[in-house]
Amino acid sequence: MSTESMAVGDHSTTHDDDHEHHPTAKTYWLTFLALVILTALEVAWSYLGLSGVALVLPLLIMMVIKFAIVAGVFMHLYTDLNILNGHWFTVAFGIAIGLAVSVYVVVFAAFQFNI
Amino acid sequence: MAEAIIDQAATPVADEHHEGHYTSLGLSNMKLAMWLFLGSEVLLFGALISTYLLSKTRFLTELVAGNPEVVAGISNDENAELVNEMITKGSVEPLFDIPFTSLSSFILLMSSLTMVLAHKSVTEGNYKNLRIWLSTTMLLGATFMAGQVYEFTTFYREGLTYDGSLLGTAFYTLTGFHGAHVTGGLIMLGSLIYLSFKGRMQKDRAETVELVGLYWHFVDIVWVLIFTIVYLIH
Q: According to the model, what pLDDT value does residue B22 have?
């Protein structure tokens, strides 16, 4: 076994392997349908005349779901993360993201918003 | 310039870089570089969205309190009723045309679908479909931009100018930066279509299409955030 192939280890893959794991066209259409339904729900919710937490919380939850769907399926993050699962890079990246979001939320909570 | 960058990315450096490009992470370095770039974009748009929220709160507080400078900053000869409605509701909601913006959101979501179908086509070696889906994506993106121009024009007529109020500055900066990113994406899409017609966007270059797709989907994701935070949570 060459030094290069040893360095690659169990995480090695190729572009072709990568593409083989990507979703089917049917999955993409269903994902789009889910996004359209969520957007319609968001708009409908904004017309209910609610305010404060009752307005904001469901809208933010639907927004995060849409965010996750686009990033996960269209941007292939679900399949790519499966490839990276257990890698030190994934753990380090996850910790960094968690820290960044925590700092952002704490600083943002110091302000008051008109909603 | 964008075409040159994409062309460079599409130019094989060596045979081992064509296919079977091994990396210790399991993903190509180009894709990781794009993700790092998108990470830096998150910081940019995170700052712009935060600034918008803080500016809107400050603007509305002073508008409702009757600060003459703030009221004058958003008033013109024709929008007295609109400004009064904003003061009464304590909200910027009267400014927005939610059905129109919802349609724009639908168009941008649709463009993400066509983009990912373009990538699927190139991985399958179907270059005719690649060009059809890329062209459709470009058309949808251009339609979204036309909608944004129309929206900006309407807002301007309604009294929301760039330098008249804190709200206007924050709103146009945020949505304008997003529009600039969409425009950048359109240039990239145009370059891909050109390269495809020239026969330089083959199956072994599918990752180039995927990288442009990542950028395009990111622009879509940013709009998902803007649509909810700016337009619906008014």
A: 59
Distance CA B106, CA A36 (A): 7
Beta strands in chain A (DSSP E): none
Q: Is B57 on the interface with A (CB under 8 A)?
A: yes
Which of the listed CATH numbers 1.10.1040.10, 1.10.3210.10, 1.20.120.80, 3.30.1700.10 matches domain B27-232? 1.20.120.80
Domain boundaries, chain B: 27-232
Q: Which residue of A has its CA nearest to B25?
A: A11
Whether the predicted interface score ipTM is above 0.85: yes
pTM of the model: 0.85
Strand, helix or coil at B106?
helix
Residue B66 structure tokens: 């009757």
Residue of B195, B138, B133 whose CA lies nearest to B9: B195
Q: Which of A31, A71, A84 sits opposite B25 (nearest CB)?
A: A84
Q: How far apart are the CA of B123 and the nearest CA of chain A, in angstroms?
A: 7
CA distances from B180 to B144, B149, B185 (A): 12, 12, 9
Q: How far apart are the C-alpha atoms of B23 and A14, rounded to whole Å? A: 8
Helix axis angle for B166-197 and B29-64, nearest 10°, is 150
| Cβ contact, residue pair A67, B56, below 8 Å | no
pLDDT per position as a tens digit, B50-81: 999 999 999 999 999 999 999 999 998 888 99
pLDDT of residue B14: 39
Exposure class string for A82-111: b at 16+ Cβ within 10 A, else e = ebbeebeeeeeeeeeeeeeeeeeeeeeeee
Give CA–CA dist B125/B135, Å, rounded.
Answer: 17
Cα–Cα distances in Å, from A9 out to A4, A16, B27, B151? 9, 18, 13, 53
pLDDT band at A20 (very low <50, low <70, confident <90, very high): low
Is B123's Cβ below 8 Å from some Cβ in A?
yes
Write down the pLDDT at residue B18: 44
